[in-house]
């Protein structure tokens, strides 16, 4: 197969920047199709991390010396870069967290504890990652609110009629993934947010699987909260960002206490720093912010629309190519989707599928993907998943299909 030709974008240019893609696994060139779990890092990110530790390593915000100022400037440049990347109104609407999971927990514990109560509803689509289900169950138990699942259609899209019926004046919060990590589904977030706001509900969007694949504008979406993880967008692990609408963030109490999030402390009274700093207790992942900014700049250099177009064409080819494998069924066929291809293979355990592919140097994920309700919708407990990124090629898809065909003929 010839890799899709999209003007203004070359996957080979991206591949040249990512050192790990040039290694071998079990004597075969690596095919990295586990991007839904984590993406590989370009040399620009690796060099940014090394450069920070080699030339600018210092704690931030509290030091008067040169390197403290330099590190602080780099950290706050990262905040401004994330705000620009998300279309946020200002850097002050961005809070750095360890990743999507911590961002959701921050909102659950800070906003949720103060704004949810007995009889309130939290609407949670069935396609959500566990990180966007469990924190709401925990805070609902504490506040006596109720988590209400929103069902899916057979194609893996959210049932919009059911969603509209479930909304009411009891609805205080709607949470939804901008793209599903199992089904690839991209819900109509803007329309769903507009409908939720008619009832006065807030909307939190899990962007972990979306931000690497297509442009995001939080103001256009009208999201109250938006969260993502750096390691799923070619950046380091342990760093992510939470966007919150400024007026909402300003009213939220701090979640964790410690240094960096205060104005003054005495045994009689403690006052807190303004947002976003009051949500960043302790020493943050400073080098992670530096690496995240480098990752966002690297991805943006290719042109977001061109990348999205390329990945869509590659996904279409992969969907067609996989139909050649006997007994293979892809879960989810929603019209709007990203390149996440979760599948079952008749008579094969997903872990065995992943093990077979690994012998051919092909990395996929197997298991429940931290989205057990999504799989239960299709009557399965586990599946294999191949997830695409901008550096994947048609030739790699062919290798995946060829290996699966050999697996089916191996008995």
Automatic annotation (TrEMBL):
EC nos: 2.8.1.7
SUPFAM superfamilies with a match to the protein in the record: PLP-dependent transferases
Keyword Magnesium applies: no
Catalytic activity: (sulfur carrier)-H + L-cysteine = (sulfur carrier)-SH + L-alanine
UniProt KW Transferase keyword: yes
This protein's UniProt keywords: Pyridoxal phosphate, Transferase
GO molecular function: cysteine desulfurase activity; pyridoxal phosphate binding
Positions of the Aminotransferase class V domain: 31-400
Cofactor: pyridoxal 5'-phosphate
GO biological process: cysteine metabolic process
InterPro entries: Aminotrans_V_dom, Cys_dSase_SufS, PyrdxlP-dep_Trfase, PyrdxlP-dep_Trfase_major, PyrdxlP-dep_Trfase_small
A Pfam family reported for this protein in Swiss-Prot or TrEMBL: Aminotran_5
Family: Belongs to the class-V pyridoxal-phosphate-dependent aminotransferase family. Csd subfamily.
Record PANTHER family: CYSTEINE DESULFURASE, CYSTEINE DESULFURASE 1, CHLOROPLASTIC
Name this protein carries in UniProt: cysteine desulfurase
Organism: Streptomyces mashuensis
Taxonomic lineage from the root: Bacteria, Bacillati, Actinomycetota, Actinomycetes, Kitasatosporales
